[in-house]
Write a structure and sequence with these properties.
462 residues, alpha/beta, 7-stranded mixed β-sheet, 18 helices, 24% strand, globular, Nickel-dependent lactate racemase
Length: 462
């Protein structure tokens, strides 16, 4: 494995893959717009009317509850547009390695009465992606080492990866992604083919793609427009799916069920259209860094594995030596699905690279998520680990667990949100997790780098 990180090339370089063209997608809405239900329904109806779906088996791949998305509205429109046309419809929830959604949670998420999905979606089959069941998957082939080097810009040059996908996707005539686009810590902007990989993929590509992103670092890749190395890897794997691929990509007003925009076409084209809107909608700029951030996490984030978004989407505006407090009294576990993270703890990228023989056999996805919540920093045998920002958990996780995983503990009962909001050195984000904060380019004197860093006398630039 090559361990020298590289900067993602962005829109000017697609790493040998199809970058997508917004002009080829059918679109509606845009930055600052708010689509009403009638507009959304009409757009979906027109888009699917022009798609060749008659007599087809259709697999809809949709997000889980950690993504804000008006799925009842969208799937109701899809249902009406496919009625009498599609031979069969299967809905697969793209969990990746997240927890399976209960029947009650699925009902709220998709808009049906618990125990009676047929009453709302007659003839449809609705399933959680079952990542732990080997029978879930179909083998699509292998991405070889030479191609891997091209896709990742040389970050990975000495290994290949097997590509597996949920069989309902592979065996359908048409696989349709229905999901939002947000700034993302691994791939740049989420959505599109990412709902296939890692959404319904085998563990091999999940681990590899996340580690590629970690080598670049979250602070470097998050909100990067165009094709990043991880997006290239995802696109390459998606091209191996035998089903015809389409996508209904969405830009959602954060924390609401309102759409700013929608795009329909190939996953590459529809994603490119919505990523451009998301870049203008879900990135908020500040003129100068702050000493402290209080990230108030919504209850849809059920463990720190998912609530880490409250760190890495705010990390770029925190000054060197500053602090991010994740405030989530409802969270009681580090990771439900990934117990290894408790053993590994939270560390920066260089901590792992400097001791690679010790960590190389751990799940690479877990190593990646560790870096996402620890942020930028350095490690060397003499000085150990030094991190740019302090990460504090004000959650229901016990103090001894928090400190054991290399984070700072704060009793959530002592958190006074109003008092923090009144503190000029603190920025409070009341609905953390979806909007990315950055420093304004060419901002106020002393604003530092776009990711919050000051000029690197500290030696802590990642």
């Amino acid at each position: 494995m090559t361990t020298t990180p590289t900067r993602p090339a962005g829109a000017e370089h697609a790493f040998g893959t199809e970058p997508g063209d917004p002009a080829r997608a059918r679109t509606t809405g845009g930055p600052g717009e708010r689509l009403d239900d009638a507009q959304v329904t009409a757009f979906v109806a027109a888009a699917l009317a022009d798609a060749d779906l008659d007599g087809a088996s259709v697999c809809l791949v949709v997000p889980d509850g950690t993504r804000t998305c008006p799925l009842p509205l969208l799937l109701g429109a899809v249902r009406d547009a496919l009625a009498g046309r599609a031979r069969e419809v299967t809905v697969v929830v793209a969990l990746g390695t997240h927890q399976a959604m209960s029947e009650e949670h699925l009902a709220r998420h998709l808009g049906f009465t618990a125990g009676d999905s047929a009453g709302t979606y007659p003839g449809w089959t609705i399933l959680n992606h079952a990542s732990g069941d080997p029978e879930t998957f179909v083998d699509l082939g292998t991405i070889g080492a030479e191609r891997m080097a091209e896709l990742t810009g040389g970050l990975m040059s000495d290994l290949s990866v097997d590509v597996r996908i949920n069989r309902h996707v592979a065996e359908a005539d048409v696989a349709v992604v229905v999901g939002p686009v947000f700034p993302h810590e691994v791939v740049g902007f989420s959505g599109g083919n990412k709902y296939f990989f890692p959404g319904v993929s085998g563990q091999e590509l999940i681990d590899l793609s996340h580690w590629v992103g970690a080598l670049i670092t979250s602070a470097e890749v998050i909100g990067t427009r165009g094709v990043t190395p991880v997006r290239a890897l995802v696109n390459e794997a998606a091209a191996m799916i035998p089903a015809r691929r389409l996508a209904l990509c969405l830009v959602v007003a954060s924390g609401t069920d309102t759409l700013h925009a929608a795009a329909f076409g190939t996953p590459e084209d529809a994603w490119a259209a919505c990523a451009a809107v998301s870049a203008e909608t879900h990135v908020s700029y500040r003129d100068a860094p702050v000493r402290r951030v209080l990230s108030v996490m919504p209850t849809k984030y059920e463990d720190i594995w998912t609530a880490a978004k409250g760190f890495y989407k705010l990390e770029p505006v925190v000054a060197d030596g500053g602090e991010v407090i994740i405030y989530a009294p409802h969270i009681t576990e580090v990771s439900v699905m990934h117990p290894d993270i408790v053993e590994i703890g939270y560390h920066n990228r260089d901590y792992f690279l400097g001791q690679w023989e010790r960590f190389r056999d751990r799940p690479w996805g877990d190593l990646a998520h560790s870096t996402h919540l620890r942020g930028q920093g350095t490690w060397d045998p003499e000085h150990g680990e030094r991190n740019r920002v302090t990460v504090t958990l004000a959650t229901g996780i016990p103090r001894e667990v928090v400190e054991a995983v290399n984070l700072r503990y704060l009793d959530p009962a002592t958190v006074d949100v109003d008092a923090y909001a009144a503190d000029p050195d603190t920025f409070v984000e009341p609905h953390a997790g979806e909007v990315l904060y950055r420093l304004r380019p060419g901002g106020a004197p002393g604003a530092g780098e776009p990711d919050g860093r000051q000029p690197p006398e500290t030696g802590l630039d990642g």
